[in-house]
Amino acid sequence: MASAAVGIINAVFGSDATFGGAPKIENTTESIKSAWSFINSYEPRLNYFCNALVDRIGLTVMRYISFEDPWQVFDKGVLGTGATVQEIYVMMQKATPYFSADRATNDEVMKAEFGSDPAEVYTAYHAVNSRIKYKVTVNREALETAFMSEANLSAFVQNVIDQIYKPAELDAFIMKKYLLYQLVKNNKLKKVTVSAVTDEASGKTLVKKFRQIYGKMKFISKEYNAAGIPMNTPAERLYTIVPVDISASIDVDVLASAFNMDKADFMGHRLEVDSFALNEYEVERLEHLLTGNDPSGTGAVTIATGAVTIATGGDKTYTHVTPNDADMTAIQALMVDRDFFQIYTKLNTMRETDLGSTLDWNYFHHIWRIYSASPFANAVQFTTKA
């Protein structure tokens, strides 16, 4: 992180004409101190630098953050105009037979030739249901101290990351686990009953079940999605999610062969989770997200899962999640289509406030997202609960 922090400062200096004449910083204490003298010599430059610095950290943060959402592969990217995604499924048309002209009535002929036979269309809507922000205060003295040495500068950059970017990654992961929790509790996730995985032998039994279900999911059927519509999932769209304890009992080569993929390709489709159940700390953070620490108040998030809306906060229907919930710990694995998770980012922006009374700067990282699941995409939980 040390040389990276210096690189961030140099990138800020090169980003705007405001920093014309800025020295190029090297990994030495004297060079870093001279940079502070340049920044602090002109108040508007100092204000502009602080804003640009936090923005620049945001642009490069993913290289240095100590925790990343392990399921971010399911994120669909930035939502353009509007705040709702409309997901459409058009039912396949059925073949119609020819009929014998000598037996057909005129009405039958006219209907067959000119009659309307519209396709059967299903629609699901996924709306923005998470609006949250993270705040960090940058103190003038702390900023000056950061430019006393390379180690201080690195610690300052890491502090910004830990206060606003790292928790955002963690909360995104928690929200996805909570989405699964709601799907399971509302019987919106297809279930396959298996025995608990406790060793290599039971791990191989689970892999056999994987192979069986995957073999069926390759073909078009109504069995593995919440909407009960004809759908299949080819290998390139299939992902497995396995708790780390269970993953240790499953040979990766055996698992890859179950999906007819080589190990290298399969590893990109195999994800891990600590547990499908939310632990105590995750529940603590979740309840703050949902209710603002007030179970009777309005929270920042409302989860919608297909036709079921899981309301929180304002209408007082939020039910506290039990840490290490039994239904979730019973899940041995998930097998999902890539399009099952409908996760979009509507807004990801930084705003700042210059505090004249304290000479501090407050920064607010705003994130608006959709956390939802497709009722049309295939998804299966392998669970020990019948």
Name its key features.
386 residues, alpha/beta, five-stranded mixed β-sheet, 37% helix, 23% strand
Task: Characterise this structure.
The protein has 386 residues and is of the alpha/beta class. The protein folds into two domains: 2-66 and 140-167; 173-383, no CATH class. It has helices at residues 2-13, 29-40, 43-60, 106-114, 140-146, 150-185, 200-217, 244-247, 252-258, 263-267, 280-291, 326-329, and strands spanning 75-78, 84-90, 121-127, 130-139, 190-193, 238-243, 270-273, 303-305, 308-310, 331-337, 341-355, 360-373, 379-383. Strands 5-13-10-6-7 form a five-stranded mixed sheet. A hairpin with a 2-residue loop joins β8 (303-305) and β9. The longest helix has 36 residues, at 150-185. The two termini are 49 Å apart.
Structure at a glance:
This protein has helices spanning 2-13, 29-40, 43-60, 106-114, 140-146, 150-185, 200-217, 244-247, 252-258, 263-267, 280-291, 326-329, and strands at 75-78, 84-90, 121-127, 130-139, 190-193, 238-243, 270-273, 303-305, 308-310, 331-337, 341-355, 360-373, 379-383. With 386 residues, it is of the alpha/beta class.
Give me the secondary-structure topology.
Elements: H1 2-13, H2 29-40, H3 43-60, E1 75-78, E2 84-90, H4 106-114, E3 121-127, E4 130-139, H5 140-146, H6 150-185, E5 190-193, H7 200-217, E6 238-243, H8 244-247, H9 252-258, H10 263-267, E7 270-273, H11 280-291, E8 303-305, E9 308-310, H12 326-329, E10 331-337, E11 341-355, E12 360-373, E13 379-383
Parallel strand pairs: 1-11, 5-13, 6-7
Antiparallel strand pairs: 2-3, 4-12, 6-10, 8-9, 10-13, 11-12
Helix pairs in contact: 1-3, 1-6, 5-6, 6-11
